[in-house]
Specification:
Elements: H1 4-19, E1 23-27, H2 32-45, E2 49-55, H3 63-74, E3 78-83, H4 85-92, H5 98-121, E4 129-133, H6 138-145, H7 151-157, E5 171-173, H8 181-190, H9 195-198, H10 218-238, E6 246-260, E7 263-276, E8 284-285, H11 290-303, E9 307-312
Parallel strand pairs: 1-2, 1-4, 2-3, 4-5, 7-9
Antiparallel strand pairs: 6-7, 7-8
Bound molecules: xanthosine-5'-monophosphate.
Residues 102, 151, 154-155, 158, 202, 204-206, 246, 280, 317, 321-323 line the site of xanthosine-5'-monophosphate.
Length: 325
């Protein structure tokens, strides 16, 4: 019968068989799928697993530290954190077009990951890496079998590290390939991953890169991280985080006039986005209580000097998309 513990035991056995005493590399994003793969592989092969976590500077507040805390500190998983903020921001400088930004982020990710993979596979202990693990789940398999046109194809191409250079050819390990998201979540909980990590909203591969409209700058990312963290705190506090499928703040490169004390403040506009959806193909803007929106808006304007105005996005999908870019 399908119980998480049965599945875990079976997969652990299969992984041991498949991998033997070889070394495995995994790109850890902190998302549900790669996290569950990391936990599963750690259970199966322990120290033969090395994870690479790329901090692209486009993550949410404290996100990188949290990933390190859960995996490296609590679980004893070998994780290499690559601080690549400068590399990503330099590559993105001057680019305002959404699809061009996605491409740059995807390509830079591959480059950074490939460099790290080379370092690991030339490893100090002289044991080459033969396997690359990926958090591919069943819907990804279906998705990539479908049309190669449009965004659907783009969606997972960043997480799943296709397109690695020729000198880095690995055999793939994809232990979640036949599982649906809800099954993956159950495995994650049974493997002892934090509830918060397993039930969090989806976060796009390009991260804040597509939530900062137009050109990406560190200054904007820092403001957005603060605003987003306030929004998340209040959603969680009010019980609305679980009632929405996805929620986030957006940095608009628009300045607006405000008033603080005796003075005027000419500062940035932050937009809040929250949606209800089952399949992410269509979505309705979440009907958050006005009081909640008011609390979030006041906190953002009071706590972040660089923000003078907050708006709430009342667009549904279609015709709007969930992300602003
Ligand atoms: P849209 O904005 O197309 O988003 O309505 C639908 C879902 O897909 C996510 N999304 C992405 N995920 N890379 C990703 O990994 C991307 O480039 C990307 N664009 C959108 C979005 O967050 C939402 O969950």
């Amino acid at each position: 019968s399908w119980t998480p513990d049965n599945i875990i035991d079976m997969r652990v056995e299969q992984l041991k068989q498949q991998i033997g005493d070889k070394q495995v590399l995994l790109g850890l994003s902190g998302g549900v799928d790669s996290s569950v793969v990391a936990a599963l592989l750690h259970k199966a092969i322990g120290d033969q697993l090395t994870c690479v976590f790329v901090d692209n500077g486009l993550l949410r507040l404290h996100e990188g530290d949290q990933v390190m805390q859960v995996f490296a500190e609590n679980m004893g998983v070998k994780v290499i954190r690559v601080d690549a903020e400068d590399r990503f921001l330099t590559a993105l400088a001057g680019e305002a077009d959404p699809e061009a930004k996605r491409k740059i982020i995807g390509k830079t990710f591959i480059d950074v990951f490939a460099d790290a993979a080379r370092d690991v596979s030339q490893g100090s202990d002289g044991k080459p890496v033969e396997f690359l693990a990926q958090g591919t789940i069943y819907p990804d398999v279906i998705e990539s079998a479908k049309s190669h046109q449009g965004k659907a194809h783009v969606i997972k191409s960043h997480h799943n590290v296709g397109g690695l250079p020729d000198d880095l050819q690995f055999e793939l390990v994809e232990p979640l390939r036949d599982l649906f998201k809800d099954e993956v979540r159950k495995l994650g909980i049974a493997l002892g991953l934090p509830h918060k990590m397993i039930y969090r909203h989806p976060f796009p591969g390009p991260g804040l890169g597509v939530r900062i409209l137009g050109e990406v700058k560190k200054e904007y990312a820092d403001i957005l991280r603060q605003a987003d963290a306030i929004f998340m705190q209040e959603l969680e506090r009010s019980g609305w985080y679980e009632k929405t499928a996805q929620a986030f703040a957006v940095f608009t490169p628009v300045k607006s006039v405000g008033v603080v004390g005796d003075g005027r403040r000419y500062a940035w506009v932050i937009a809040l986005r929250a949606v209800e959806t089952i399949d992410f193909m269509t979505a309705r803007f979440a009907h958050l209580p006005y009081e909640l929106i008011e609390t979030v808006s006041n906190r953002i304007m009071n706590e972040i000097a660089e923000v003078s105005r907050v708006t709430y996005d009342v667009s549904s999908k279609p015709p709007a998309t969930i992300e602003w870019e």
